[in-house]
Structure formats: structure tokens, C-alpha cells
Amino acid sequence: MNAVETTRDGAVATVTLARPDKLNALDRATRGELVGALRDVAADETVRAVVLTGSGRAFCVGQDLAAVEELEHADETVAGSYNPIAQTIADMPKPVVAAVNGPAVGAGLGLVLACDLRLAAEQASFSCAFGKVGLVPDTGVSWHLVRELGYARAFALAALGRAFTAEEAKGYGLVNRVLPADELASGARDLAQLLAGGPSVALALTKRQFRAVSEVSFEAALAIEARHQGAAAAHPDHVEGRTAFAEKRPPRWT
């Protein structure tokens, strides 16, 4: 049985963590399958949007603590197989939607935060629980939490390891929308299809731009915007969008 499954619905690819008996915990093999699946959909030009979700009652509870040997050289484990997952999601030139069906703990929280849009089922929960096992946040958790919540609230979540609900996550701005459990899959699919039907080049440039500007000066951000606008305006999608607007019809994106 594969630990990660990829399915297609038109231009939308859904990548599912498929270790429900282990609450989709991440061992070395699962991390390898996950980064491979993400790289495959990133490289597939027929995929225009991606959904990341879990099977069973959990989204992902992070590191499989039964694989104790993987933490003997934790720096190498994180650098070699966790960081590439978060980096692949961030660098992917297409939007990634997290469909959080249950608990997202530790590195599982990192997977959610790496995604561009985040939907959660009502029963989903989140926890920055690294400290409970004497570890520190990884998989980009610290980067995202400090920027999205500020230092004090981010540190409280990490230091106390308190689980918080989907509604709390929405209040924090970490989740875009909370849905009933039986509507999560269709809601994520509909959102991904909406994105897949959009101007893919402009969306890819917007994603790259938004991820870059928080790290640079205002002047550098203006330069990035100008450069990306030049690329977008030179693409046929811009001509189509302008023409469709003038003709009062839906655009037909390439």
C-alpha cells in the first residue's frame, strides 16, 4: 500500500496522506513518497491546482515517533526530508489548497501552513506540539507562525503546545474557511477548480511575488512587482483577459 496517493479530477490533483492507522504520521518512507508526489504534480503542466489532505480521522500528526532512529541525527532528517516538502509546496508554480480533515500536529501543522489556501473541517484541530517531546518547531512552522501571528502569540502556541480548534485557527487567520466534515472534500475541490480555471501564469507570479516581498525592502518589493507585471502583461492571458473584459464575456485562459 502506498503511503501517499495522487488522484486527478481534470486540472486538479489531490495528494492524500494514506496512513490512516498511523494518523498519517510521517516516517522516512512517507516523507519520500510525499515529496515525490508533490514534485510530480508541480512538474505536470496539465495540473493547474493541487489539494493536499489526509485520509481517515487525521490530517497529519507529524513525525512518526516510533521511528526513533530518525531523530538520532534530527538535523539531517529535517534538512534532508522535511525541508524539501515545505520548499516544494512553496516553490510550486501553482496554488496548493490544504483540506484539513482532522488533527494537524507538529510537522503536520507545517504542511498546512506551507499551503497557499487552507480549508478545515469543523472537527479539525491544530497543535504546535514539538515542545511536548522536547523538540523545536520545524517544517517552516516558526517562519509562518511568527509572520502570521506575531512573536508573542506564536511563542505561546509553541511553548505551551495547546491544541486549538478550527474556528480558533480561522480567528488567527491561519485558516481561510471552516466547513462541515461532509463538505470539506467538495469545498476543497471546488476551490481548486476555481483556481485551476484562472490565469495560471498570473497566479504563479502572484504566489512567487507574495512569498518574496515579506523578506525584502519596500523598494525591492516594488521592483519585484514591476518585473512580474512585465512578464504577466507580455503573456497571451493578459490579451485574452483584456479582450474578454471589453467583450463582456468570461475569459478563456491558456
Properties at a glance:
about 250 residues; alpha/beta; six-stranded mixed β-sheet; about 50% helix
Describe the protein's architecture and organization.
By secondary structure, this protein is an alpha/beta fold. The protein has 10 helices and 9 strands. Strands 1-2-3-4-6-9 form a 6-stranded mixed sheet, with helices on both faces. The protein has a 3-stranded mixed sheet with strand order 5-7-8. α8 (200-213) packs antiparallel against α9 (218-233). The longest helix has 18 residues, at 74-91. The chain starts with a strand and ends in a 7-residue tail after the last helix. 38% of the residues are buried.
Q: What structural category do the secondary elements indicate?
A: alpha/beta
The separation of the N and C termini measures 37 Å
Tally of separate helices: 10
Flag low-confidence runs.
Answer: none
Radius of gyration computed on alpha carbons: 19 Å
Largest sheet composition? 6 strands, mixed
- Helix percentage: 40-55%
Question: Which range does the strand content fall in?
Answer: 5-15%
Global geometry: globular
Main sheet strand line-up: 1-2-3-4-6-9
Q: Roughly what is the average pLDDT, rounded to an integer? A: 94
Question: What's the helix-strand series?
Answer: EEHEHEEHEEHHEHEHHHH
Strand segment tally: 9
